[in-house]
């Protein structure tokens, strides 16, 4: 229980947190796109890598009947090393709890970076249900297993030290990514993911990713479900693997993506940096929408 006390907010007070005021005011809820279900993961609140403003913009433009938080939402590992919790990170927690209060079913499946919440499996915090994994049934009746994905690390990463080596390189890349995008912002250019670009170029990362995807799909197949939805590897994807539907909702550190289900059961990945860039290049259409 010692790990949880390191967090700034106390769990008992969380239920009333929605009654406070966020730093970034919420947009009117009437203008939101409505989905049957939304999946987000790998937000890494508590780290500088988290694109909090972009996620706030996302949460203020979409709504759903159910929202799955597919792990690594709060980065307990990073917070143990150095405490970092800006107001925008509180704003995200506020928005999630507010949604729960308004009637969205929120399912939180802790990942490896927020494994401290796994001890609360089965509990409900202000309408946020904590589960180890979940089964989502789509509008057209397909059964999808929802899990974070770190449970397969032992298989995908045969050498533990190799994983830590990756960690250091990854952290350096994240720092570079932040600087690069600060410069791009200053130059008026849209967000661009350096590591996403690098990953596509690095063969090792590609083989790790495809191995992860195959193992997760195989496990889902063994459990007799139609498909699987994971996070963890920060790589959004929709593809079929040996008759199993594999979905990954990506992350909010690099790609800034979410997975959504439409009311007819069709699935889609939303690339939020692109959506924001498209909106900014057409400010008049947004203004028209607001006026309508
Ligand atoms: Mn993870």
Question: What is shown here, in short?
Answer:
37% of the residues lie in helices and 20% in strands. The chain is an alpha/beta fold and 292 residues long. The strands form two sheets. A seven-stranded mixed beta sheet has the order 4-5-3-2-1-11-12. Strands 6-7-8-10-9 form a five-stranded mixed beta sheet, covered by helices on one side.
Ordered list of secondary-structure elements with their pairings:
Blueprint: E1 33-40, H1 52-59, E2 62-69, H2 76-81, H3 87-102, E3 105-108, E4 124-125, E5 128-130, E6 134-137, E7 143-146, H4 153-156, H5 160-186, H6 194-201, H7 203-222, E8 227-230, E9 237-241, E10 244-248, E11 257-261, E12 267-271, H8 272-281, H9 283-291
Parallel strand pairs: 1-2, 2-3, 3-5, 7-8, 8-10
Antiparallel strand pairs: 1-11, 4-5, 6-7, 9-10, 11-12
Helix pairs in contact: 1-3
This protein binds manganese (II) ion.
Features:
292 residues; Purple Acid Phosphatase, chain A, domain 2; seven-stranded mixed beta sheet; five-stranded mixed beta sheet; disordered N terminus; binds manganese (II) ion
